[in-house]
Amino acid sequence: MGNRQLSNIEFDVLSLDLKFVTTPSKFPLIDTLAAVETCINENNLCATDAAEIRNKAVNIITHFKKPNSNLNREQINALHKLAESDEIMITKADKSNTTVVLNKIFRKLILRILKSLRLQLQNLKNLKLNLLISDQEYFKLLPKDYYYPHLRGLIKIHKENNPVRLLVPYNNNPARSLAIFVSNLIKPKLEYKYNVKNSTELVTKLRNINVNNNYLMFSADIVNLYPSIPQVIALEKAVEILETCTSFSRSDLKCMIKLIYDSAMFTFEGDYYKQVEGLPMGANNSPIFAELILQEIDAEISASNFELLFYTRFYDDLLIIIKKSEYCKFTEFLNNLRPFLKFTFELEIENSINYLDVHIAKNNNLLSTSVFRKETHSNRYLNFKSYSPVSHKRSVVRSLVSRAYNIINDVENIHHELNYIRYILQLNNYPKIFIDKEIQKMGFENTSSTQCATDSKPLIIPYVNTVSEPLSRLFRKHNINTFHKSNKQIKSLFLPKNENQCTHVVYEMNCSTCQSKYVGQTKRQLSTRIKEHKRAVIYNPDSSAVAIHVVNNVHNVDFENTKVLHKAKCHKNRIFIENWYIAKNNVNNVALMNTEVPQLPNQYVPSLNKL
Fold first, then answer.
1. Are residues 484 and 541 in the same domain?
2. 79 phi/psi in degrees, rounded to 5
3. Are strands 308-314 and 317-323 parallel, antiparallel or unpaired?
4. Does residue 157 sit in the same domain as residue 251?
5. pLDDT of 586-609, one tens digit each?
């Protein structure tokens, strides 16, 4: 979808899948030690057991041998060249495990410029003052640190003209907590009478339906559901529901929901934008608000006089079996239910139709089901060469085989599907003997889980093949399960990078006068933490070790060149990593602004000079 031509080597490496995990160039020492120590502390192991685990874990780690890379030098260089290119963007297609390469100029077509917005949070304070929410709820809902998310566009390669689905991850949106709060109030009031959760549930519902040639199967899909629902209509419906289950006034409820709408901001190529029409794509409350409208439609369809043999819905995709003579009137009825929603329809062809990943066919007045794949399906799965745990690769085989058994209702088709699974997995470099072994196992086991039930907190470590298994065995002796995290995926090379917007980091500041260092950690944006250090220097010197150093010594700290040392989502891991870097500086006689130097367990001290 771009003018730039990919070289053969670029094409080959992108064909591996954006989730392909590259072999780590060095051992993730700090992450592994942090995970081990966190697990020891969370499980309150006695001093003897803790010391034994630390000793053996360090011994296992010191015997690490660097594995061979699963990419050659040409492929690695090609990836870095693609990541540095200003001409293109690389992303995943919508509803398909396909990699799409786009001209960056294409991205300009999906947005229009709007002015930035400053949130008004006085409404939350009023709710607290009026005792409608507790102090605890107020502080939970109040945004403490946020940034407006970056817009992404997913290309719908399975639809004509390849339209774009806009997606905004609202994880750090200022009104995210409020949106979740409102959604959780509404959820208990929803009744999922006509919904199916997945293909397995759909097949179960279809199993005993008698359908003759007087009936027609068709599917209906709502065009651009979220952007099409007017905010005012969703607001009124949400308020109507919330009035029945909360003590908030109508005006309070409207203010809360309007605040959620007003926070629907995002960034794109350095500019700020606001969605002014429809439900925000990616917002936490949008699925719930849309479901309110869709359940009204469900009820009106059910109450209609049409002779429906079957009706179900998966989000905004409907499956209907109706008398052939009523099809035209019903589709007209459907498109008139809500003027702002428009449906597209797909009729059965030769007595069969595709819905979700199920092919449904009329067969002697019953419905037979088999696995369906779109024409644009890439047949790409986790590549066997990916540097991922073997358990993840087993799960790929088992999920495909399990789907076959859950969907297909005749033996001949199951054999055909299993052979096809063997074929496509071998295209993804899975050895045939590995595939057959997992298929055979599934005939004897009721579950694919190999973990033992335990109340212990698990060990969660980065996967390194020569270290992960011995560590797993070590912790298993203490009745502790191990879960593996994959390392760096190819897609991480193509994500927007802005260190000041990094969250969950361990960082380092340098004094530009005396070269002393300060190591700290924060779960918020690094830029927010830097601002706090700057304010402390001016207004509250005793609140920060950095401020104490600056004021007492009349020195200057180089705030602008604050360095990210490490990233870790888990708070306890991050604290350990912070302590590790402070101890490392102390061992190397680096002058510290930190007022306290933590004591690491003795077993970890030799690791301080490994990095």
1. no
2. -60, -45
3. antiparallel
4. yes
5. 988 889 998 888 888 999 988 887
